[in-house]
Design a protein that fits this description.
Elements (H helix, E strand, L loop, with lengths): L4 H35 L14 E5 L11 H15 L5 E5 L9 H11 L7 E4 L5 H10 L5 E5 L5 H10 L3 E3 L11 H19 L28
Parallel strand pairs: 1-2, 1-4, 2-3, 4-5
Helix pairs in contact: 1-5, 1-6, 4-5, 5-6
Length: 229
């Protein structure tokens, strides 16, 4: 018996609606898990953070002239504050340097050095292409097991969740020092990013895109530099 075309269309639409509902529910559950587990390591202020061997500073955009964007500048400012206060001994600056013309880690390094961080205490990860990559490499390349994570409020729960999923004991407090352009877009984008982090934590594309020879976070950070300017 031939099914009328109108019924076929209704079945297709119903299947699409059900699939959308299931996908939406999965994203919502993943977000709730990341916010709960990552959020449990968020502290209200620097004073409430436990000391750690290293601050992991997550990369963000740099301006065309090679200087940090406002978001990245605020991350770096908090990291320097932690270092000056003796709350951390080293800085691990992890960002995107996948192209010669775009270079987050060296912009971060210049800021740290200009603000009094000793060169031997500055480590650069040039393959921090994503939040997940940063923590895989922090564990596998730099041997980090405990850290303070530095990033903005919208990003912090996912960052801490990703750290924990990679076996790194981590805490953090928001570094927001101003209102950022595109902040509403960042909040919306984070919905998908949290779901992706949950998948990565459960073994879906969980490896970093670039590995490397071990560099001890307890040593001299200059061995991780690609240039000395």
């Amino acid at each position: 018996m031939r099914v009328p075309r109108s019924k076929t269309y209704r079945r297709v639409i119903l299947a699409l609606v059900l699939a959308s509902l299931v996908a939406g529910l999965a994203v919502a559950l993943a977000n709730a898990t990341v916010l709960r587990l990552g959020g449990s390591a968020v502290r209200a202020s620097i004073a409430e953070l436990d000391d750690a061997p290293v601050a992991i500073v997550l990369g963000a955009a740099v301006k065309p002239d090679g200087t940090p964007s406002h978001a990245l500048e605020d991350r770096l400012a908090q990291a320097v504050e932690l270092y000056r206060a003796g709350r951390v001994k080293k800085l691990l600056l992890s960002g995107d340097h996948g192209a010669e013309r775009y270079d987050e880690p060296n912009a971060m390094k210049r800021y740290a050095l200009e603000h009094g961080v000793r060169p031997e205490d500055v480590f650069c990860d040039h393959a921090g292409f994503s939040t997940w990559d940063t923590f895989v490499r922090a564990r596998d390349v730099f041997g980090v097991t405990r850290a303070i994570v530095v990033t903005q409020r919208f990003h912090l729960p996912r960052a801490l969740y990703s750290a924990k999923a990679n076996g790194i004991e981590a805490q953090g407090t928001q570094c927001d020092a101003r209102t950022y352009q595109k902040s509403a877009w960042f909040e919306v984008r984070e919905l998908g990013s949290r779901a992706k982090a949950w998948l990565q934590a459960h073994g879906v594309a969980s490896g970093a895109r670039a590995s490397g020879a071990p560099i001890s976070i307890e040593g001299d950070g200059r061995v991780s530099w690609d240039r000395t300017d």
